[in-house]
């Protein structure tokens, strides 16, 4: 068991972390796949077309 402020977490309780902001969220959050956009998205499309290992 750990106490953070007024929150008490016990073994088996869910904690979620926002990897972008570092926010700690009580409970289990729904996951979303990462999105590639802009120049990185274009580059990864080129790489996928030319790679030999799949």
From TrEMBL:
Source domain of life: Eukaryota
Gene Ontology molecular function: pyruvate, phosphate dikinase activity
InterPro entries per UniProt: Pyruvate_phosphate_dikinase
Protein name, per record: Uncharacterized protein
Organism, as annotated: Nymphaea colorata
């Amino acid at each position: 068991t750990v106490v953070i402020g007024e929150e008490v977490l016990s073994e088996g309780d869910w904690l979620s972390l926002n990897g972008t902001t570092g926010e700690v969220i009580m409970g289990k959050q729904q996951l979303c796949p990462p999105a590639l956009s802009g120049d990185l998205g274009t580059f990864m499309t080129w790489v996928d077309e030319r790679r030999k290992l799949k």
